[in-house]
Structure formats: structure tokens, C-alpha cells
Recover the amino acids of this structure.
């Protein structure tokens, strides 16, 4: 019951503070930009230099989706860290958490509501970006395969949700939103370095992006182990956030 | 407290208490009404009940007129009063307040004290910590004095005055007070003298051990010092006197 009350507050906050709008517009722009750039690239090159001879391949819908997935892995990842790094740290720094947690509110409910609220912002952004990307790709190039498109977006979205839960954990642990953001980004970059080790790569959450690219390209290169590890990471980070918050005095 | 063990994150206890930190911080994007509803919902209140309590509490803390305004635009005094309202939404048996008036301007302080006086008429036990002893004197039935984490005394204000405060005489005199102060300091029945010096006159607060002797001797001493006595009265000692006596003794 209290989780729902807190979730309602989280969603209202994301609406009123324009977090939801900003993330949605950001991903929508990147979703639309990918097919636009590919469709108009020959014309853009023509305008840049008249004597320039560049061989531009014929782009297919999967290229526009791949370009959008690239954006999700960079801009989407940064947005995921930015929206979640202050989620708990800032509430404690400002003092708003003291009042809420002095009520009969479980720290678990507090953390779950935060994660679901941020997940909702991510979902809204992903839906906006996906619609923009699919629509513009269909109009400017051709219709991408719906099943592959949805599967690739779900995999990328799950990876970003794992980044959010990781950042939320650091936001609980560090009490400073910049510190939480830097720590989370550090772990993500370390994960990127670890993925260079072939034996580890199939188990890392970042492999979900690799899987998303494969699905989009029509390959059968799945990463089921990475999927399990990502879910485990989301659960472990949420439980760890709950336990850390439970033991701390405001 | 209220029949429950005290500890971190104890929902049964949290259901029975209300809490106001020294500087309550709210979500600035919410309105006062929304915040109270949010807190009421946390306590499982909904529909008409939460609406009824919000209306009653906003009236109690005199925020009805600004209930639909965003909290980000509230003054400190208004936030403090909203803090009291949110602490009362669950009709707590015990209300804990940490220095509720310390950060307020005089007007805000009066507003909060008046709210506390109205609360006394309801069935809530209010615990408040404060360094402003005049506030404690004005609103508290019982006072506990704590020094360095140790409880020195707990009693009613009147009882504390009777037990610990020394009688005080206030003298307003014209002329330099030094000869009189020097004379007073050598007398056994004088405990200490506080001086507030003005341009032409001075106010002396003489704490005495023997009020009868002081009543007889003080006017004579003023005349012998060649000063003009403007005002002379025995005043009721206040909590500050009690505090100074108790904590001063501890420090010594």
C-alpha cells in the first residue's frame, strides 16, 4: 500500500520536475535523428563538397535501428545515470527523506518506489524513442521487422534499467549525487573494459546491447547468461539499497 | 514510547508518533494540501477522512489560504507550521519537535508558539527541545534540563522556579552604578548582579539569597551610593535563572 503511495508521488514528481518530458524528448529526438541522418546522408555529403566523391552504401532499416541503439548505449546510458544519481542521495542531502521515513514507511517500499518511478521514466523515454525511430525509419527507408525491433529495444531497456538500479544503489550508499553518478559511471566503464575479456563478455549486462544488435541484424547470437546476470544485478542492487538505507540513520 | 520499544524503522511506533525536525524540508513542487494528503495516504487514510483531517489541520496551523500554493513559495514560518500539521495527520499520541522555533523570525516564532498552545487543548503529548527558554516557559507544563547528555532535573516551570531560582530584585537607577555594584558584591545576602547600562540610567538585576533582608537593605544602599532610584521591584525569576543556576553549578 505505502509502495503505491510513494510510487504515485515519484511519478508526479517526474512529471512536475519535467524529468519524464526531458528524457522522452531526448530519446525521441535521437530516435528520429538516426533514420533522418541515414536517409539524407548522400544529400548532406553533396552539399558539403561538390567535388567530394564518397561511396555511400544503400541503407536498410536495420542500419537506422542500429544507429538508434548506439545512441541508447551512450546518451541513454548517461540519461539513466543522470536521472537516478540523486534519487536517494539528494532526498537525504536536502532532508526530505527524514520526514517521509519518520512515518511508517518501509525502506524497502521507499527503494522499490524509486526504482519503479525511474523505470517508468525510462519506459516513457524508450517508447517515445522507439516510436520516433520506427516511424521515421518506416517513412524514410522501409519498415523494420517489428519483432526484432521490439526485442532489441527491450534488451537495451533492460540494460539501462540495470544501470539505473546500480546508480540507485550508489545513491543510497554515497549520500552525494555527484559521487553516486561518478561511481556508477566508473562501474559501467569498468564493465566495458571487462567485456574485452572474451571469457567474461557473455556474462556481462553490457552484452545485452550486443544481443540487441544481433537481434536487429537478424543474427542468432543470443546472450541468455547476460540476461540472467542483468536481472540478478537489478535484484541485488535493489536489495542492497534497501539494506543500506535500513541500517543508516537519516 | 507510547508502549513501543524505541528503535530505527519501527512501524508500530511510527504509527503512534508525529515528528518535526528542526528545519523541515518538503517537496517544493507539491502544494501544502498535496503534502498533507500524501502523508495521510502513507498512514492509510483516504477519501473523505484524509480530506477532513487536511482541512482541520490546515485551519489549526492557519495555512488554509495558501493550501493550494506550492511549498517552494512558503516562508520559513509557514513551512514550520506545515511541519506541525504533517506531524499531526495521524493524530499521534506523542509529538516530537526538535527546536520548532529556533530558525524563525519573531513573527514566525509567535505563530508556531500559538499553534502549540492550541495543541495543548487536544489530547497529544508534545515533547519539544529548545534553547529558547522563554518559549519553554510559555508553552510547556513540564521542563527537563539536559546538560551534556545528562538529565539534570525535570519538573513543572513553577516548581523549578521555587526550587532553583533565586529571588531577583530589579533596580532602575540614574547615575553611574559602579559604587553600588561594588557595595553589593561584598554583601553575604547578594548572590550575583547583572547590569544593563543605558545612556543615563542603568538596570540592575540583583539575585539575592535572603529576599527579606534585600527588600530592607537595597533602597538604603542606593541612597547611600548617591544615586536616584527610578524603579524598584521584586520580579519573578525565569527559566533562564533556573538554567544558569543548574548548568552553572555543573560547569563549576
Amino acid at each position: 500500500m505505502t509502495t503505491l503511495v510513494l510510487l504515485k508521488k515519484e511519478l508526479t514528481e517526474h512529471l512536475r520536475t519535467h524529468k519524464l518530458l526531458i528524457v522522452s524528448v531526448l530519446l525521441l529526438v535521437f530516435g528520429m535523428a538516426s533514420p533522418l541522418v541515414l536517409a539524407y546522408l548522400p544529400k548532406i555529403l553533396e552539399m558539403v563538397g561538390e567535388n567530394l566523391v564518397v561511396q555511400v552504401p544503400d541503407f536498410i532499416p536495420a542500419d537506422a535501428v542500429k544507429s538508434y541503439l548506439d545512441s541508447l548505449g551512450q546518451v541513454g546510458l548517461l540519461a539513466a545515470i543522470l536521472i537516478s544519481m540523486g534519487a536517494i542521495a539528494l532526498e537525504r542531502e536536502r532532508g526530505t527523506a527524514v520526514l517521509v521515513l519518520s512515518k511508517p514507511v518501509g525502506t524497502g517500499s521507499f527503494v522499490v518506489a524509486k526504482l519503479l518511478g525511474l523505470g517508468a521514466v525510462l519506459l516513457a523515454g524508450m517508447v517515445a524513442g522507439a516510436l520516433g525511430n520506427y516511424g521515421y525509419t518506416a517513412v524514410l527507408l522501409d519498415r523494420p521487422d517489428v519483432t526484432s525491433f521490439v526485442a532489441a529495444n527491450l534488451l537495451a531497456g533492460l540494460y539501462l534499467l540495470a544501470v539505473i538500479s546500480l546508480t540507485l544503489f550508489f545513491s543510497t550508499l554515497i549520500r552525494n549525487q555527484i559521487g553516486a553518478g561518478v561511481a556508477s559511471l566508473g562501474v559501467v566503464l569498468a564493465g566495458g573494459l571487462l567485456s574485452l575479456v572474451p571469457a567474461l563478455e557473455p556474462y556481462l549486462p553490457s552484452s545485452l546491447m550486443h544481443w540487441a544488435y544481433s537481434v536487429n541484424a537478424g543474427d542468432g547470437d543470443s546472450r541468455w547468461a547476460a540476461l540472467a546476470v542483468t536481472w540478478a544485478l537489478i535484484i541485488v542492487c535493489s536489495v542492497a539499497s534497501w539494506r543500506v538505507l535500513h541500517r543508516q540513520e537519516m | 514510547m507510547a508502549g513501543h520499544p524505541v528503535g530505527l524503522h519501527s512501524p508500530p511506533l511510527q504509527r503512534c508518533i508525529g515528528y518535526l525536525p528542526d528545519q523541515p524540508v518538503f517537496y517544493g513542487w507539491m502544494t501544502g494540501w498535496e503534502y498533507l494528503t500524501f502523508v495521510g495516504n502513507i498512514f492509510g487514510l483516504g477519501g473523505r477522512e484524509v480530506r477532513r483531517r487536511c482541512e482541520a489541520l490546515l485551519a489549526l496551523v492557519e495555512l488554509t489560504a495558501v493550501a493550494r500554493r506550492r511549498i517552494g513559495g512558503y516562508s520559513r514560518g509557514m513551512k514550520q507550521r506545515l511541519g506541525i500539521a504533517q506531524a499531526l495527520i495521524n493524530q499521534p499520541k506523542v509529538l516530537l519537535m526538535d527546536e520548532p522555533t529556533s530558525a524563525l523570525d519573531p513573527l514566525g516564532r509567535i505563530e508556531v508558539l500559538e499553534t502549540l498552545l492550541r495543541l495543548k487543548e487536544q489530547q497529544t503529548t508534545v515533547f519539544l527541545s529548545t534553547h529558547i527558554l522563554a518559549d519553554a516557559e510559555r508553552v510547556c507544563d513540564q521542563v527537563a534540563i539536559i546538560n551534556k547528555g545528562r538529565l539534570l532535573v525535570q519538573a513543572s516551570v513553577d516548581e523549578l522556579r521555587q526550587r532553583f531560582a533565586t529571588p531577583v530584585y530589579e533596580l532602575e537607577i540614574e547615575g553611574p552604578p559602579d559604587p553600588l555594584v561594588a557595595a553589593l558584591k561584598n554583601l553575604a545576602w547578594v548572590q550575583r548582579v547583572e547590569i544593563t547600562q543605558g545612556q543615563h540610567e542603568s538596570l540592575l538585576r540583583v539575585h539575592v539569597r535572603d529576599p527579606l533582608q534585600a527588600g530592607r537593605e537595597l533602597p538604603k544602599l542606593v541612597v547611600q551610593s548617591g544615586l536616584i532610584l527610578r524603579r524598584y521591584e521584586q520580579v519573578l525569576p525565569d527559566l533562564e535563572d533556573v538554567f544558569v543556576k543548574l548548568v552553572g553549578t555543573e560547569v563549576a
Remarks:
- Chain B has two domains: 11-140, 166-236.
- Residues 243 and 249 of chain B are 10 Å apart (CA to CA).
